[in-house]
Automatic annotation (TrEMBL):
This is DUF2240 family protein. It comes from the Archaea. InterPro entries: DUF2240.
């Protein structure tokens, strides 16, 4: 997480306290030339998921004091940094959000998801069950719907 914090701090120290998502991605891919646009988008997503960045109505803010990050003047991310992040599956993302927002441990959250699945006699996937449970609990999962749709499409394409 230290390397990711340094990357974020470098962007915000060059820019200002709040920027847009596109400014963040542009800074990483064009200003600093550290990553491709796609890699920069991935870094943004991971930063939000890891609770280092907050995206409120298109305005991005850090969730930590970037002025306090120990950042050498000539800082550049290590060459293999972009390969460290594996995208989490939708189920994992939903599970973590339920646990965090509803203060449940993993066992309790999975029990809720499995119960909802059993209510449908196992005819729905765990992911769909998790989406339903999260929605019923008032957990915001709108962004995960798009990710889950993408996973379904990729899975379908692989089976063809």
């Amino acid at each position: 997480m230290g390397e990711l914090k340094k990357i974020i701090a470098k962007v915000f120290l060059r820019k200002r306290r709040q920027i847009t998502r596109s400014e963040f991605i542009f800074a990483l891919s064009h200003d600093l030339r550290w990553f491709s646009k796609k890699e920069a988008e991935k870094i943004f997503e991971v930063s939000v998921r890891e609770n280092l960045l907050e995206d409120k109505e298109g305005v991005i803010r850090t969730k930590f004091d970037f002025y306090r990050v120990d950042l050498p003047h000539d800082f550049k991310p290590e060459p293999n940094f972009k390969f460290k992040f594996k995208e989490e599956k939708s189920l994992d993302v939903i599970l973590k959000r339920i646990m965090k927002e509803k203060k449940l441990d993993e066992k309790e959250a999975m029990a809720e998801i499995n119960k909802a699945r059993e209510d449908f006699k196992g005819l729905i996937s765990r992911e769909v069950s998790a989406l339903m449970v999260a929605r019923d609990m008032g957990v915001d999962i709108d962004d995960v719907l798009e990710r889950y749709h993408r996973e379904l499409v990729e899975k379908r394409l692989k089976s063809i």
